[in-house]
Specification:
20 strands, Porin, mainly beta, 14-stranded antiparallel barrel
């Protein structure tokens, strides 16, 4: 019997690993699991106009009072393409209670970045002199990452796909000629597919099966789950002078209970036969659920028309990641498993400028920086190779007519290197996943396009 192998194998090990990270997903363009690409105009200005820009109906995703700055009716459609790269350098992974010489490395790529397409839609109508009604449909969170099934960190993560969509009906009140106040309701749908490997070969060898090969006869567990949750957003837009505008908005947390099923598949003839024959109750399909909360956030911004051609803007966003300190997964057999996250609240800051080159062409640029909620290497995971990051953006809006606008934006994300140090002991959360360490190099390119039409 291999003495160096872990002596525990929870029947829902995969569910613990997967459900505990269901909403801990990070787009390389934003910290935590946020997606901020709801508008090509905000992306082109590095999000510096999110709270106070109020240039078209899509801005209600950031500040619902933005629709009060737009007379009449308008529709906006947009799409963002995100190309994220997560590359683990100097990786070491090995079983619990052993040395790095007993490596889990089987030659798979350590690159987990994927591409993602994020669509959005917004529309608003002016009901009368005092009220505006709007609807925004957008994705506030999401991730798509996938590693090779034989990569060195396979027991921690293989695939993570998180899709969310918010439906936000919005009502704005034009309190005065200078002040707009708004409220929006948020119905949020979340769908997740996540997988990782389980070292079934070690578990079978510990039971005395001489055919099993530790670290090679893996079983892949995949969990799929979804849920609806509900929250709200509040916003204010104040025109201080004819040239200066202030904006503030608050997005509430949303509570979800993600329910799903865990399915298994083998990677070798031995483990595939074990799954197909249901020879071990620990690798038969199971179910579970976890209560999850998407965090509250606050946006504060200023927009100033410095000259007839040049506008300057700045934005600060606070996100209450500290609400995500622990996740308890409940299984259908009545057991549960807590996972410590220990995330911290963060701030993101950005500045930007617009320059009217001609009446038809508006040039855009911006810079930003964003803190990571992950406090240290021990809380960084392959699903969340998150680190502090900086943005640089460029873009332009073409207005062939006063009613029609076409905007293109580009963002490059420069992320700090992020160390990962997942330590395993026989009694902690990594007991069956083993040790994993290294340094993540993260970068991303984001392209966005939108069309707005006023009538």
């Amino acid at each position: 019997m291999p003495r160096h192998m872990p002596n525990t194998f929870n029947k829902l090990t995969v569910a613990i690993a997967l459900a505990s990270t269901t909403l801990i997903a990070s787009q390389a363009a934003a910290s935590g699991f946020q997606v901020r690409e709801q508008s090509a105009k905000t992306l082109a200005n590095a999000l510096s106009n999110a709270a106070a820009g109020a240039e078209d109906a899509s801005f209600m995703a950031y500040n619902p009072a933005a629709i009060g700055n737009i007379d009449g009716n308008q529709v906006v459609g947009g799409v963002a393409y995100i190309d994220a790269n997560f590359d683990l350098q100097d990786a070491e992974a090995y079983p619990t209670g052993t040395s790095p010489l007993l490596s889990y490395d089987r030659g798979g790529s350590r690159q987990g970045g994927e591409t993602a397409v994020v669509p959005s839609f917004a529309a608003k109508t002016q009901l009368n002199e005092q009220f505006d009604l709007g609807l925004a449909i957008y994705a506030p969170y999401g991730l798509s990452t996938k590693y090779d099934e034989d990569w060195v960190g396979r027991y921690h993560a293989i695939e993570t796909e998180l899709k969310t969509i918010d439906f936000q009906p919005t009502l704005n009140y034009r309190a005065t000629d200078r002040l707009n106040l708004a409220v929006g309701l948020r119905a949020q749908y979340v769908d997740a597919t996540l997988s990782n490997a389980v070292d079934f070969g070690s578990a079978a060898a510990l039971k005395g099966d001489p055919r099993a090969i530790p670290g090679r006869d893996d079983v892949i567990g995949t969990v799929e789950g979804d849920d609806w949750g509900y929250g709200y957003t509040l916003g204010a837009l104040f025109q201080v002078t004819d040239k200066t505008r202030l904006g503030a908005s608050y997005r509430s947390k949303i509570d979800l209970t993600l329910e799903g099923d865990v399915g298994f598949s083998g990677t070798t003839a031995y483990s595939s036969a074990a799954v197909a024959n249901e020879s071990d109750p620990r690798i038969t399909d199971k179910g579970g659920k976890a209560d999850l909360t998407t965090p509250a956030s606050l946006n504060l911004g200023v927009y100033h028309q410095l000259t007839d051609r040049l506008a300057l803007m700045a934005n600060a966003e606070w996100t209450e990641w500290s609400s995500f300190d622990e996740l308890v997964v409940e299984f259908e057999d009545g057991t549960n498993s807590p996972t410590t996250e220990n995330w911290e609240d963060t701030w993101a800051f950005s500045v930007g400028a617009n320059y009217a080159l001609t009446p038809q062409w508006l040039l855009r640029a911006g810079l930003g920086l964003d803190e990571s909620p992950v406090p240290s290497a021990e809380f960084r995971t392959p699903r969340v190779p998150d680190a502090d990051r900086q943005w640089a953006t460029l873009g332009a809006t073409w207005m062939p007519t006063p009613e029609l606008g076409v905007t293109a934006g580009y963002m490059h994300v420069f992320a700090d290197d992020g160390d990962i140090d997942q330590q395993a002991t026989p009694t902690n959360e990594n007991a069956t996943k083993g040790n994993l360490s290294g340094t993540y190099e993260v970068s991303a390119d984001v392209f966005a396009l939108s069309v707005d039409y006023r009538f």
